[in-house]
Amino acid sequence: MTVRHSGDPHLFYGALWSCNFGPALRALGHELLESQIDLLPASRFMQVASGFTTEELKVRAHITEQILNEVKAAHLQRPVDLFLSYFYNAHFDASGFDELRRLGIPSTNFYCNSVYQFEKVSEIAGNADFSWHTEKNARELYLSVGANPVRVQFGADPTLYHPLTGVERKRAACFIGQRYADRDRWLAALHHANIPFDIYGSDWNSTVETAEDVAPCDEVYLGRKQYRPGSFASYAHAVRENIERDGLISGLSRTAKQLRYRRQTQRLTPQIVAHAKGRSENIAATLAAYEVCLNFSNVWADGRAGSELIPHMRLRDFEAPMCRTCYITGYNDEIGEFYEIGKEIDTYTTIQELIDKTKFYLNDPTAAQQLRTAGYERARRDHTWLKRFEELFRKIGLNN
Hints:
The protein is built from 15 helices and 13 strands. The protein is an alpha/beta fold. The protein has three domains: 16-154 and 385-396, Rossmann fold, CATH 3.40.50; 170-204 and 275-382, Glycogen Phosphorylase B (Rossmann fold, 3-Layer(aba) Sandwich); 219-272, no CATH class. Strands 6-5-9-12-13 form a five-stranded parallel beta sheet, sandwiched between helices.
C-alpha cells in the first residue's frame, strides 16, 4: 500500500490519504503494509504529465525499483492480496504494474482530479488493473486510455471528523481551504453583503494563487527550471506555456484572461485579508465553533487558470457533515446522489443564492440545527470510508 506523496506529513499532504484509508481498511480486518519509500523526490514534479527530463526519469525509475523490491520482499513473507496506490505519472513507471501482475498481485490506483487533470495520471491509469476515480463524468477519459475504471466516491472517517460537545457556536460562517480558482470571488461577495465569516487555510494573504510546496525561489530541480510564483520569470514562462499548448492566438488570449484575473485578485485581497485566520489546526474543532460551514466546488476545467470553471465534488462534502455542520456548498450534478439537498445539506449556484442561504441559516438556528443533524446522520450511515472500501472491493471482485 503506497499512498504518501511525501514522508514529511507537512509536504504534499503527506499523511492525508494514509489517515483516510488506513483506519477503514483495518476496521474491515485487513492487515496493511504501508510503503516506507518516500515519494517526495517525484512529488516535486508530479504536476508534469509527460516529457520528463532524464533526471526525472531516473528518479522515477529508482522509486519504482524500490517499491517493487519492497513488495516482493513482503510477498515472500506473506501473500499480498492488493496493491493500492495514489500515483501520478511522475511517481511510478507504468510498466511496474506488469511486474505486479507477474507476481499475481492485483493493483488499484486511486485518483480524484480526473475531470480536470487527467493527463497527469493517464499513463498510470492504462496499466493498473483498476483505476479508482470519484467523478461520475471521468469514466470515458479512463476508457480512452484502455483503463479499467471503477467509480467509488470520497468518504470521511468518523474518528477524525466528528461532532464536539461543549463548544459554543459563533454566529458566523467559516471556510477551510486554500485560495484557489474563484473562491475569493464568492467570499468577497459575502464581505460586501456584511455577512460575518472567517477563512482558514493558506495563500489568503497573497495575490498569487499557489500550491503549498512550490519552490520559494527560481531554481533548477532534476533538470527542470522551477519558478517562484509572482516573479517576472514565472509570468514569462506562463506565456510561453500558453502559446505552446494552445497556439499563438489562443495562448495570448489565455494569457490576457489570466492577467485580468490576477488584477481582480489583487483588488480583492485587502477585503479578504481581514477574514483570514491562518491554518486550522483541528478541522473538527474549527467546524464546531461556527453556525455555518461554507464550501466552494469550482475548479479550473483544464487545471490551469483562465479556463472554464466547473464544479467538482470535494472531500469536505463528506468531512463537514460528518462533523455535524450546517453545510452549504456549490451545486454540482453529482451531489444529489449522496445527500437530499435542502434537508441534509444545502447548495447554491449563484452569488445571490449563496448570500441568501448563508443569511437564512445564520438567522434561523432551528433550521441550521435541522440541516446539521440530518446531514450528520446521513454521513454516518452512508458515507464512511469503511462503506467506500466495501463498495470498492465488491466492484473489483476482492472479498472483504
